[in-house]
Specification:
The complex is a heterotrimer of chains A (251), B (434) and C (403). With 434 residues, chain B is α+β, with helices and mostly antiparallel strands. Helices cover 51% and strands 14% of the residues of chain B. Chain C contains 11 helices and 13 strands. In chain C, helix 2 packs antiparallel against helix 8 and helix 10 runs antiparallel to helix 11. Chain C is elongated, with a radius of gyration of 32 Å. Chain C: One of its GO terms (cellular component) is plasma membrane.
Chain lengths: 251, 434, 403
């Protein structure tokens, strides 16, 4: 699903060069739920930005769902992002001037779906996060947990193959955080690959596999991920031992 | 506290030079456009003789044809006939009165180095000076006796005396005009008239009169007016027929010192016209008017329609500029919500934040006002270049300078009220939590 | 593209939208009406006088004293003028077009008619006038020298024959058969016969409602000791001829004053100075107004971009391309501008109505408002382009940056 090989990211100012990622390699298989942990400044967010095609990288190779991303122009990257990736941010990033319906609608508009298709998807995904009844409300009228659910609905509406979550529970209290996490697990069970950046070890522990980033390098990973109980009748593609075993992070 | 806020305002403006420049330019342009047109309108239309403008009245009698009124809207002619003017002068019912007309004469200077030249002046009675109060430098007006005696005397304007006698006291000397010698009885000082309001028929913004001579003497010499002459039927041949005709070519002013005197004079005019009707004149219904100076100026549209339209448009433009400023201030203040939250958290009251931002708006207004003042100067320069006849009215005076700056500051503070109010609503906690 | 969500987002920040909308509305109202006034003034200024203005100039002569022989002087002067090198022709006339000073009278078809049929300007001239003015005779004939009557100033003009402009002829005789007809100048006989028709000659008064109603009256009538000469130079020689004329006339007789020489071009300039000034002032107001409005849009749009940086980043993260973001701001501007323009259209007509009632101006033609729409749409798009480009360059990674 996502394969980075010897990836480098250098930030340059006129005085100094900062190596945010140096020789960073990771391979996330389809259907996995991977937690990326590490102290602040380790390069977690840079990794996520590159994985989400928000930023370019300086060297190495990056295949997203088999597509070599380097050399794609901005438009192609936007398209790829729109079609394959869903985003969940720490601070939700809902657009305050739009109601829930219109917020979820945003990526679908860029996708170019017709009105009926969009409506169906918006309703489906809001139903999935349990907020179908509040479609006409504005973000400011919701609690943080609810806002993050809307953000998840927005991420899911386009049926992405890969969900990138950046500290999805960072701005939530523990009760709300648990709800959000359960929702993510549920989504993963239904087959969507999830990469979650977090510094919370408890949260990371619930992922199938942990990748630890320190100083821009993958230094530690869980070679034998715990197998998740697969819900009955929900043995979709790509879960289970196979993906767990095949994880390979180089270096 | 005020100076602290002033300092903060200045600093904040410097921090955002482009936004500040946009606001200052906007206000400056709006102020300049409205002040330029307002100055012209103000000076054109302002009362030229405020201490007695309600006592000076312009006499209008409707001697026009039974079939057509003089003006399409039924207003009476703006001048009177010779025979009516003389009848009113002889009756002498007003406190002061003068018939007058405009006259152009060739001047033949004594000094042979000066070539003869044409000059525009005024034929009037001595009360002209008593009514309109031009300042005298030397001598004074001629006397009532000299009016009655048809004497060939003259009062020279300042420039004419400058030209003919090098500015010396020329009283008692003579000036030769159209081959006739007139004795100089007085010389005017600088008579600053914004508009020549006593003869609006022949142009409010013409050059000032260069000489004045008795009406009676000019009529003896069969001098016709150089100004407007209107007839509704043929006058017949010759000078005497002309004087006897219903052609209007003379302006008639009276001074009436009280409302009672005005009422008396009105009824005198009515009875005069009714007498004339018995002689077969004045076929139209009674339609006498005695407008005072300001009414007469409004009637004759001294402030031209163009200037009124320009002023209207310029003020609409100012409104646009102010709306623009509201928007930009709003943008600026919203960006500072963090700072406001911090100040509130550090103990500033809502009121203090309010004053701080209003003063900042005032600083913008003051800068806009100064720019506007400079642009107004340029604008008036342009008006003088475009309208040569408005050179007397396109000048800034202290009142207008004060009004310009005050208008800029007041309007921008007003423009700042809403954004400031918005900025003050910021909850300190909301901004600091993140 | 996505008009409805942009619109509903806008409705959540009404004040900013109203501020820009009001500016756009007032700008439209002012620009439409000011452009209309400018157009009227330009039309006014472009009216032809009917004369050869390029080569023609005029000057006054005034003698002094009772002994001055005006008639002899004028005859001498005309003889002098006509034989000067470079002079095409010269005549004596009481007035010239656009000079704002002259004579007028009513013309009637019947004696004792209560209201005259037409008002006309009177040009009191000799048989060389048509050639000197440079007007075209389109029917009939010119005056003969023997038709120029000696008249004393102050006596009634009773010309046996007159030449009128086509406009006047059509007004008097709408059937087009004016030539040879007789009319009354004033209320009493005798009548005057129309012996010729010229295509066009304006009256001296620029604000006249019947400006092309003019009549040539053949008479030799000095105004006291004064007279006015109109001189047409050969093409291209006007300036040199002017100097020569002034010099020759000054030398020829010292008991009179030769006034300033005016070209017809100067006279046109002065006659239309007010219109010109109005057009220039309104143009300046329009330009300043458009500038302020454009700056206002730039300012507000920049502010919005700055305020929504994170939102833009989120949109980018959700798959919006640069051009999507660009289009978002352009669409937003288009919506605001359009709302403002709709209000502005009402304002523009209201302003025009006020002008009609207060100043008897004509109605604003309908097409000014759509033209104004197009211009302000273009202005808005141009103004928002910069900030929108800046918005489109917001990196998507802004979305993951912690606040």
């Amino acid at each position: 699903m996502l394969k980075m090989t010897h990836l480098q990211k250098v930030y340059r100012t006129h005085l100094i060069e900062t190596h945010a990622l140096r020789d960073f390699s990771i391979h996330v298989r389809e259907g996995e739920f991977v937690a990326v942990t590490g102290p602040s400044g380790s390069g977690k967010t840079t990794f996520l930005n590159i994985a989400g095609l928000l930023e370019e990288f300086s060297g190495g190779e990056f295949l997203l769902d088999g597509v070599n991303v380097s050399g794609l122009n901005d438009n192609a990257r936007s398209k790829l992002r729109n079609e394959k990736i869903g985003f969940i941010f720490q601070s939700f990033n809902l657009i305050p001037d739009l109601n829930l319906f219109d917020n979820v609608d945003v990526p679908l508009r860029y996708r170019g779906f017709g009105a009926a298709e969009r409506k169906k998807r918006i309703e489906e995904s809001l139903t999935r996060v349990g907020l179908a009844s509040r479609m006409k409300h504005y973000p400011s009228e919701l609690s943080g947990g609810q806002q993050q659910r809307v953000a998840i609905a927005r991420a899911l509406a386009g049926s992405p193959r890969l969900l990138l979550a950046d500290e999805p529970t960072g701005n939530l209290d523990s009760l709300m955080a648990r709800g959000v996490l359960e929702l993510l697990e549920e989504i993963n069970r239904q087959g969507t690959t999830i990469v979650m950046v977090t510094h919370d070890p408890e949260l990371a522990a619930r992922a199938q596999r942990n990748v630890h980033v320190i100083d821009g390098q993958v230094t530690d990973f869980d070679e034998a991920p715990r197998l998740r109980e697969v819900a009955a009748g929900n043995a979709d593609r790509g879960s289970g031992a196979e993906s767990g075993r095949a994880v390979g992070a180089m270096d | 506290m005020f100076s602290y806020y002033l300092q903060l305002g200045m600093r904040s403006l410097r921090r955002n030079p482009i936004l500040t420049a946009l606001m200052v330019i906007g206000i400056g342009l709006g102020i300049a456009a409205s002040m330029t047109t307002l100055t012209v309108m103000h000076l054109m239309g302002s009362d030229p003789i405020p201490w007695k403008s309600d006592k000076l009245h312009y006499v209008q009698l409707d001697n026009w044809s039974a079939d057509n009124s003089y003006y399409d809207d039924g207003r009476p002619p703006d001048q009177v006939t010779y025979r009516d003017a003389v009848a009113l002068m002889e009756a002498g019912k007003a406190d002061k009165q003068s018939a007058m007309f405009k006259l152009s004469l060739p001047i033949q200077p004594e000094n042979k180095e000066l070539k003869p030249f044409r000059s525009l002046g005024r034929v009037a009675y001595t009360d002209f000076f008593g009514m309109f109060e031009p300042p005298f430098k030397y001598g004074g007006p001629w006397s009532h006796d000299q009016d009655a005696g048809h004497e060939r005397v003259v009062v020279l304007g300042k420039d004419m005396n400058e030209k003919l006698f090098g500015g010396q006291d020329s009283v008692g000397r003579t000036v030769r005009m159209d081959d006739i010698d007139y004795t100089i009885v007085g010389v005017l000082d600088d008579w600053k008239l914004r508009s020549r309001y006593y003869d609006l028929t022949n142009g409010a913004f013409e050059d000032p009169d260069e000489f004045f001579m008795p009406f009676t003497a000019a009529i003896d010499l069969k001098q016709r007016s150089t100004g407007n002459n209107s007839c509704w039927k043929s006058s017949g041949d010759g000078w005497d027929a002309y004087l006897d005709s219903d052609c209007v070519w003379i302006q008639m002013w009276v001074q009436l010192d009280s409302p009672a005197r005005l009422a008396e004079y009105k009824s005198f005019l009515d009875s005069y016209v009714n007498e004339q009707k018995k002689l077969g004149r004045f076929p139209r219904p009674l339609n006498n008017r005695l407008l005072d100076v300001n009414e007469w100026m409004a009637d004759q549209e001294v402030v031209s329609r163009d200037v009124q339209v320009q002023t209207g448009l310029a003020f609409a433009f100012l409104v646009v500029c102010l709306v623009n400023t509201v928007g930009l201030l709003l943008a600026k203040f919203t960006r500072k919500s963090g700072e406001i939250g911090l100040r509130r958290a550090l103990g500033a009251s809502r009121r203090e934040v309010f004053s701080q931002f209003l003063i900042e708006s005032g600083v913008v207004g003051l800068s806009g006002g100064v720019l506007g003042l400079a642009l107004t100067g340029l604008g008036l320069l342009a008006v003088r270049a475009l309208y040569s006849e408005y050179k007397t009215v396109a000048h800034l005076d202290w009142t207008m300078i004060f009004v310009t700056v005050a208008l800029a500051v007041v309007s921008s503070v007003l423009a700042g009220v809403y954004p400031t109010w918005r900025a003050c609503r910021v909850q300190p906690a909301a901004q600091l939590k993140i | 593209m996505e008009i409805r969500p942009i619109f509903s987002a806008l409705m959540r920040s009404k004040v900013s939208m109203i501020l820009i909308g009001v500016q756009v509305a007032m700008t439209l109202a002012i620009v439409c009406n000011a452009l209309f006034i400018i157009g009227q003034r330009l039309d006014h200024m472009n009216r032809p006088s009917g004369m050869n203005e390029a080569d023609t100039f005029y000057l006054g002569s005034s003698g002094f004293g009772q002994g001055f022989d005006a008639r002899a002087t004028i005859r001498e002067d005309l003889a002098t003028l006509r034989q000067l090198p470079g002079v095409a022709d010269a005549t004596v006339s009481n007035s010239v077009p656009m000079s704002e000073g002259g004579w007028s009278t009513g013309l009637s078809l019947q004696p004792k008619q209560k209201t005259s049929t037409a008002d006309t300007a009177i040009y009191i001239v000799d048989d060389r006038a048509l050639d000197t003015f440079g007007v075209n005779l389109i029917a009939g004939r010119n005056f003969k020298p023997e038709e120029i009557a000696d008249v004393t100033f102050g006596d009634r003009l009773q010309p046996a024959s007159i030449i009128v402009t086509k406009a006047l002829a059509d007004k008097l005789f709408p059937d087009g058969d004016a030539l040879g007809k007789s009319i009354y100048m004033g209320e009493d006989p005798p009548t005057s016969t129309i012996i010729g028709i010229v295509d066009r000659l304006q009256q001296p008064w620029m604000s006249s409602s019947s400006i092309e109603n003019s009549t040539f009256v053949p008479a030799f009538m000095p105004y006291g000791n004064s007279s006015r000469y109109l001189v047409r130079a050969e093409p291209g020689r006007r300036d040199e001829v002017m100097k020569l004329v002034e010099q020759k006339l000054s030398e020829s007789n010292t008991s009179r004053i030769i006034g300033k020489v005016h070209t017809m071009e100067e006279t046109r300039g002065e006659a239309y100075a007010g219109d010109r000034a109005m057009a220039i002032i309104l143009t300046a107001v329009i330009l300043a107004l458009l500038m302020v409005t454009a700056l206002g849009i730039v300012g507000m749009a920049s502010f919005w971009v700055a305020q929504r940086t994170r939102q833009i980043g989120t949109r980018r993260a959700l798959g919006a391309s640069r051009s999507d973001i660009l289009r978002y701001f352009q669409t937003e501007n288009f919506i605001i501008t359009t709302l403002g323009l709709l209000v502005g259209a009402v304002l523009a007509y209201a302003f025009s109505l006020w002008m009609m009632q207060s100043y008897q101006s004509p109605r604003l033609p309908w097409y000014y408002v759509p033209i104004g729409f197009v211009c302000l749409w273009a202005l808005g798009q141009l103004a928002v382009l910069g900030p929108a480009m800046r918005a489109s360059r917001v990196p998507p990674a802004v979305a993951t940056r912690s606040v």
